[in-house]
């Protein structure tokens, strides 16, 4: 099969996304509007009959004073990753991006490699000998993922560990936690929550915590406790303008693409979170909570409301995004992992992000720069 790659417009891109059950929120046209420091283009793969068979949102980051770019396809492109002729998909992309002045290409194949059940992860956390999730025997393996990884290496792609150990590292997380929804009634999903989760949801209700949907004007309230969360959990917060731009761009594309939820108690916002939806895939994107009145359990309440709404929207999966790979008690992110495990879902390992150096000199310089950040 001969594939032709060319740029496509937003409508073509979005129409293709609507034909898929699951596409990353970072591979829709509006995500390019969110990333103001990058230029964005929609790429389309066409078969011999002129039919659009794959898409990709590529972000182009210029090097200072040079007309050269880092090309990045976060959690993409959206192509047939199981195709035996994977080279025919990726080689035209590399040729096109090289012609655009890219010195390096980074992509994140949306391919699952391994899965760990909640029970397996819980046991690993309790095991003093377990250091990393990657070293724990998986509940399920996806054989095709390892074949794809081998083919990428033979093509010259290099795997990066960015986003692997630290959920807040540069790049997208390699390890995430998801709750499968497809074919399950909501009461079954609630029964799968651990006892502490179910108890905390009842506590929040009894305490009078009310979870409501917010809008653009509520983003400052979210941001106030998001900054507090960043200081507590030791990550650098994004500016308020980022979330305002995110809301404007995503909701203009689809009114349900982004939602904001607020957990209120006695006229005070105790927790807030954003939820993103593309097709049957729903993400818990950003979360925030104050240290005040934690006994009211607003975090469990807000998550259960989001899960319930996601189920009503027809979600096939509820994605709680990144988790740490480190299982040691000294890891400050272990509490977040425990919280997510309580949903009864599963830990997922993706293939991670891959780089292709089109200019080895500039690519090496970029690696040095990122290592010094």
UniProtKB/TrEMBL annotation:
Q: Respond yes or no to whether keyword Cell wall biogenesis/degradation is given for this record.
A: yes
InterPro entries per the UniProt record, alphabetical: Acyl_CoA_acyltransferase (IPR016181), FEMABX (IPR003447), PG_Glycine_Bridge_Synth (IPR050644)
What keywords is this UniProt entry annotated with?
Acyltransferase, Cell shape, Cell wall biogenesis/degradation, Peptidoglycan synthesis, Transferase
Keyword check for Cell wall biogenesis/degradation? yes
Report the family membership: Belongs to the FemABX family.
The record, for SUPFAM superfamilies, names: Acyl-CoA N-acyltransferases (Nat)
Mind telling me what this protein is named?
A: Lipid II:glycine glycyltransferase (Peptidoglycan interpeptide bridge formation enzyme)
